[in-house]
Design goal:
With 503 residues, the chain is of the alpha+beta class. It contains ten helices and 15 strands. Helix content is 56%, strand content 15%. The strands form three sheets. Strands 4, 7, 8, 9, 10, 11, 12, 13, 14 and 15 form a ten-stranded antiparallel β-sheet that branches. The chain has a three-stranded antiparallel β-sheet with strand order 2-1-3, with no helix packed on it. A two-stranded antiparallel ribbon has the order 5-6.
């Protein structure tokens, strides 16, 4: 900036003004970028997913209730739809909040851009006024030719050229800022229109919820009139679930015992192998000792055992070593006798988790690491009855469930949620055909199957079909899914599957 002081005194104040204007505009703070729209995109994807779930639930509901009496499953399907619609309204409100935030941010951006535009216009006007006051060609030429030397003149010429470029840059910035303001206004108007659309969708969903609530109440009234019949069905279903739970527990206990016995046999084989190797080693040592006996007498001292060497008084004279005794070469060594007959090892109970092979243990770890990401046992469906103890939606009774009930489409394929080995295929009255799959420390059970396409001992992969869903007495396509875990004390217990499958 030293060249500024080369200007003539008559033009010093004006040129310094131009320089300060350039510095001010070059240091103007840029407007912050708009926040990432990833959260908004996630909300939109979730809204689409919820709408898809509602549509699938409605289709399955219509497929199972045509010309049939109202059932508990229909009631639960209606309740599932209501729950999804409540989630949808919540999601819509979150989207509206995100849009409100974007609207507020866009307003701030427009305000900042307008402030920037006003500043640009003011600086541009000041530079125009300065140029008008010093517009004569004579003044410009005098400014150049009044230089002390050639280099100063060249610097002043470059200054004038940069000043013209700066004026052009000012005009371009004004145009660009005007364009940015128009673009932000368009974005703002679009966001406001989206907000209005979501508000309308929210009102429509509230009306649908009211309609479906009335439909649910109608089903409840119909079910209350059949209390005796349905209570009997509920009790029968509870007995079937208990029978299934006992069958699963027995099957898992059997697998634990088999795994323990297998590990115990492997341990015994390993001990027998080591014992045989030890006996072979001791036999070799005895053979070597017998070979040495033909050359001298074995001498046992306080510091160890050595053979006597003929002609060497240091080794042959008993008085040359303290605590020295001569032993019979044919007498067995106490140490050798003890080593030749090892103590029998006591059998130890092997823990199931510790008896797993490295491959099975890795499989179990992978299963556990996929918690919350496992695929559903059916491609499409919704949960009609959840895990654990629950109050009945109509009658004043409680039900117990070791798994979850999933309503799906007719003849839907049932698939394994993870790779494993089929350990059992069995039948339970009221629960249809059942498949038990081993995943290491975890077991999955698939019940209410109409058909099974795998056999005991088969290795299955993730999402491989193992059968198809059957129907219950009401013609509904329900699939029962359970997940069991073997603890460190070898006790098995059911887990809530809804926390393991993908949401």
């Amino acid at each position: 900036m030293f060249w500024l002081y080369l200007l003539p005194s008559t033009n010093m104040m004006g040129m310094r003004f131009i320089l300060l204007t350039i510095l001010l505009l070059s240091g103007l703070c840029s407007i912050a970028q708009q926040p990432s729209g990833s959260s908004r995109s996630e909300l939109e994807n979730r809204r689409k997913s919820i709408l898809n779930n509602i549509q699938e639930t409605q289709q399955q509901l219509e497929a199972t209730r045509n010309d049939k009496k109202a059932s508990i499953t229909e009631l639960r399907a209606l309740q599932a739809k209501l729950n999804e619609r409540q989630k949808l309204i919540t999601n819509i409100n979150q989207e509206i909040s995100a849009i409100d935030h974007n609207i507020q941010y866009s307003n701030q951006e427009i305000t900042q851009l307008r402030e920037k535009l006003n500043l640009l216009k003011m600086r541009y006007a000041q530079s125009v006024r300065y140029e008008y006051m010093n517009k004569s060609t004579y003044n410009m030429l005098a400014f150049i030719f009044s230089s002390k030397d050639y280099n100063t003149a060249m610097r002043r010429m470059r200054y004038l050229r940069k000043y013209r470029e700066f004026r052009k840059y000012q005009a371009e910035q004004i145009k660009k800022t005007n364009s940015d303001i128009e673009q932000k206004i368009n974005v703002l108007n679009f966001a406001k229109s989206q907000k209005n659309i979501l508000r309308t969708a929210e009102e429509q969903q509230k009306q649908v919820i009211q309609k479906e609530t009335n439909e649910k109440d109608r089903v409840v009234v119909s079910l209350k009139g059949r209390e005796h019949e349905l209570t009997r069905q509920i009790n029968e279903n509870q007995r079937s679930l208990k029978q299934l739970e006992r069958a699963i527990s027995v099957a898992i206990r059997k697998e634990i015992e088999l795994a323990r016995k297998k590990a115990e046999e492997e341990r015994r084989r390993e001990e027998a192998r080591r014992k045989a190797e030890e006996e072979k080693r001791l036999a070799a040592e005895r053979a070597a000792a017998e070979a040495h006996q033909s050359q001298g007498v074995k001498v046992v001292t306080g510091s160890g055992t050595r053979n006597a060497v003929p002609g060497n008084p240091r080794y042959n004279n008993p008085s040359t070593s303290n605590n020295t005794t001569i032993t019979n070469n044919n007498a067995p060594s106490p140490a050798a006798s003890t080593a030749a007959t090892p103590r029998p090892s006591q059998p130890k109970a092997t823990n199931y988790n510790l008896s797993l092979t490295p491959e099975v243990a890795a499989l179990s770890d992978n299963f556990e690491n996929n918690r919350g990401k496992l695929p559903w046992p059916v491609e499409k469906g919704f949960i009609t009855e959840r895990f654990g103890r629950q109050k009945h939606p109509v009658y004043n009774i409680e039900t117990e469930n070791s798994g979850i009930e999933i309503q799906t489409s007719p003849n839907a394929g049932v698939r394994a949620v993870f790779r494993g080995v089929v350990k059992n295929v069995f039948y339970v009255p009221g629960m249809g055909q059942c498949v038990l799959i081993d995943h290491g420390r975890f077991f999955t059970v698939y019940s209410r199957l109409g058909s099974v396409s795998v056999g005991k001992g088969a290795t299955v992969s993730m999402k491989q079909q193992i059968g198809t869903v059957g129907t219950n007495d009401n013609g509904e396509y329900l699939m029962h899914f359970e997940l069991w875990k073997v603890a460190s004390n070898d006790k098995s217990s059911p887990q809530d599957p809804s926390g393991w499958i993908a949401r």
